[in-house]
NAD(P)-dependent dehydrogenase (Short-subunit alcohol dehydrogenase family)
Amino acid sequence: MSKQAKVALITGANKGLGLETARQLGKLGITVLLGARDKTKGEAAAAELKREGIDARAITLDVDSPSDIAEVADKIAAEFGQLDILVNNAAVMVDARTGNETSTTSGEVLRTTFRTNFFAVVQLTQALLPLLQQSEAGRIVNLSSILGSNTLHATPGSPIYDAKTFAYDSSKAALNSFTIHLAHELKDTKIKVNSAHPGWVKTDMGGEGAVMEITDGVKTGVELATLGEDGPTGGYFHLGKALPW
């Protein structure tokens, strides 16, 4: 009997970093589940990857929807019995991005940002953890950002010292905290949990000034998703280098 291929779920995978992450994992022979809020867009993305010979399957998932999360967990359990890789890629940035507006950032902007970038990640990961525990080598990758580094934000002259988008930055700092805490809880298991900074990538969120191509932006996440047994856990990385929290 042939061994079942590894299974990966990537959230926000119908475009950008999520889609390319699915493509790169799929090229390694991993079955990729493309989580997307819009079923039609998800299916179109999966069809694109299938034409490239990748075992890609669309799965309807609005990470802000508890019912979607429960349905996805049940679906993966029924079809595969386990999950090997979870890439928490879906995120939003709703800050104005016109300078440091911390004192006027509204509660609505903060709640919207944290709902997707933090609370949804925690809820989805918790729901899928039993399936990851069935894997021989579960991997959780939280797509963070260098903007989540409190150390660099507080250091004059750092690359992000003058780049202050309060809601987004603080949501990614909270996500990094989740990485640290969950990795510690699971340190005696085969599951590894890490945060990835993709870089300033040419995506809808990255904007016109971005300097990295999407194919390069996914390298960190793909590496962390396919770590060997001797790989790190509880870390914060960009292209193989650790970032300060």
Notes: Strands lie at 7-10, 31-36, 56-60, 85-88, 139-143, 192-196, 236-238, 241-242. The longest strand covers residues 31-36. The mean pLDDT is 94. The domain at 7-236 is CATH 3.40.50.720 (Rossmann fold).
